[in-house]
Fold these 2 entries.
Entry 1:
Amino acid sequence: MTDEVTLEVNGKIISGWDSVRVTRGIERFPSDFDLGLMDYYPGSDEKQLVKEGNICVVKIGGDLVITGYVDDWLPSINRARHEIRATGRGKCEDFVDCSAEWPNNVISNCTVMDIATRLASFYGIKVNCDVGELQTVPQFTINWGESPQEIIDRVCRWAALLYYDKPDGSLLLTRVGTKKAASGVAEGVNVEDAYYRKSMADRFSDYVGVSLGVSPISGWAPGSAYDSVTLATARDPDAADMRYRKRIILVESTMLAKDRAQNCIDWEMNRRYGRSQQLNVTIDSWRDSAGKLWEPNTLIPVNLPTLQLENTELLIAEVTFLRDERGTHAQLLLMPPAAFSVQPYEFYQVIPGLNQ
């Protein structure tokens, strides 16, 4: 399979790249690229110029990887050659950069899918969701000037969803993936470089969620004592092998109102557990054994005995496709699925008469 990288702009296909970097990820929003080439295609007198802001498509072989816009078109010259560098991002860049538009700035009677679809419609971005039975989001007011991405981040946390862009430029609302790649990374097979970070710096053996009460009569004064109530507890999966380390967390009032304190503490534990195990690996191919490009939010087998990672399974958090004078490589950032548990969120509700 030929993995030539092409940039298509205004019906013109530009190839012959000297350097390539294309990055996609669960938490990289939107996907982006950085390509470098000689100003003239080898063997051709046609000058390959592109205007910044043009819509573009980036492909690896016959596979689409990014649909978006050219942000920068950077020509340069020196004594030896004339070069061009092109950088850009997926269509969802407008979702991040621009301000949200919504009638009266009040969102009500909508699911996350409804909200995302409406916000994205101004920029020609399609929205897909592979999670069924979405509940209606509580009514809330958006702030002037905030981006659609900031709004989607809040409502996706409330609905426990992940969001990132797809190669066709669309926005996907989803959860931690269960799809498995045909192959993975294995020592002595396809690994060129690997770095594994397993940390205890941000992990704790025990997590306790509490609320603090203040006497409605005396209120709070310097030096006065709070009454604390334990609402939820959680233990690290490896707590039996850890020294005692306890973390007390104040649960937000919005979590109390919705009885979601346990969700909040579970998230704290899972997130710290997952993020404490990060594998950065460089491999010699952009594709798995079935010929498919590495895809974020996909589980892959990992076998690196030297790093004490044998016959385990990790999730692709981010993939970078690279090509330069050193050859063709893929850089993968891998973590346990628990690293992408979504932080619980509840909207503040206005109680009628409270502020009268």
Entry 2:
Amino acid sequence: MKKTLLAAALLAGFATAGVAQAETSVTLYGILDTGYGYQNYKFDRADADITSKSSGLRDGTFNGSRWGLKGAEDLGDGLRAIFQLEASVNLGSQPGDGQRGFARQSFVGLSSDNWGTFTMGRQYSAGTETFLVPNGVNLGDADKFFGSTGLGEGTRVENSFKYVTPDLSGFKFIAMYGTGDDGGTTVGRNTDGSSFSDRGTRVSVGALYANGPIGVGASYDRQSSSGNDALTSWQINGAYDFEVVKLGLAYGQDRHGKLGWNGSGKGIVGEDMVQAINAADAKLGLNAKGDDFALSNDFKSNNYHVGLSAPVGGGTLYAGWNYSTSNQDDADKWGDAADNASSYHVNYVYPLSKRTSLYTYASYAKNIGYVKDLKGTEAGVGLNHKF
């Protein structure tokens, strides 16, 4: 249960006379998620046999560990001033890798029962908010295959203006415009393989419908970048709850790269293994992929997702499949060093209470990041606590 604090209590030491605080509230909330995990990556082609194994404490498997503040002030006539500040937490290594302030979310705005919500700051794109289907984690997460879903860097848009309509009989529409930033946030891959952070304008629009057992979502994102064609990504997904089982399906396309891609080979297997794979390919006379397994400027992919979840033994069992085809196997790109990517995933979550759950998971991925014969397996158990 979230801890809701009256602003009068939170700001007691700072209050000034004449300020009405009874209609203002601030909520402190968070998620702590950690456990044990095991990963094994293997590249096996011709005379190359490269492996990388690791195990130990894993933080933020089912939910990124975080803490935050959000609040609202009643301005009358159904209008409220709202804000949210959310920061990452790494339970195994404080203060965490590259964490900076309230990097997960930070925005302020106005919300109306009749006119919807308008916010400004760093906030989630429409692709994240409209992906409604049952989904996995880590290697089995759809954001390893789709460019505009999930919670990667490219799905948090800095310097953005966002409008969400009120609920219209189950329908909601989202429109976002980002004015760009001056660096520091990875949002895609350049043709030379490096990540780019100096980005131009961002457009993100989406719609969702949720009513009873039916859920449908769709989004389109366009991100301009200096020296490259604009990255575009769209997806459509739907879910139906049969009570015995919930089925989710999704399809999408990426062009000129992948927005906020969490599925790049280097990001998953690490730089040392990337170098070893490139050296092995060079010996075989295959196209060099570059230090970051570069995506071409005319990159194209078609992405698919199927997810099933069902109540089992007091908890929830999930099984899912992701698949993505691309043109990276063209002769002028990676050629025979590329192949279609896929993953299989299963997890089980058992609630100990409304706020605390135990979980276990396992995944198998093939041709990670479109790199042919690069495979991965993982498994783990953990504890998730919400406050």
